[in-house]
Amino acid sequence: MVLEVYALNETLMLMKIVLAIIIGMMLAIIIALRVVVVSARRLERMEINIARMTKKILKEEELELEKLGVKKTTSRSSKSKKKKTSSKKSRSKK
């Protein structure tokens, strides 16, 4: 009878330890996920701020170029020219 109670106490103690480990692991996962979410938000804000600064610098540079009287060249028009020339090449090959 005493051995049965001792075995039962030992089993309960082992179960408590296992549950404590499982709960600890779950808490660690939750904290890690929270850190990931906070980091992602911070990175998103940094990207937004970089985009704002880039737009601001671009506007300032355009104003400086206008003051100097330099014509604006857009990258879009040069890309479309490249596309047109490549299509002409492909037509001539046919």
- Put simply, the count of helices is 2
Decide which structural class fits the backbone. mainly alpha
- In terms of quaternary structure, the protein is single chain
The helix fraction, in percent, is over 70%
Strand share of the residues?
under 5%
Unreliable spans: none
> End-to-end span in angstroms?
97 Å
Radius of gyration: 33 Å
Annotation keywords:
single chain; about 90 residues; mainly alpha; about 90% helix
Notes on the protein architecture:
It is built from 2 helices and no strands. It has helices spanning 2-68, 75-93. It starts with a helix and ends with a helix.
In short:
The protein is mostly helical. It has helices spanning 2-68, 75-93. The chain is 91% helix and 0% strand.
Layout: helices, strands, pairs:
Layout: H1 2-68, H2 75-93
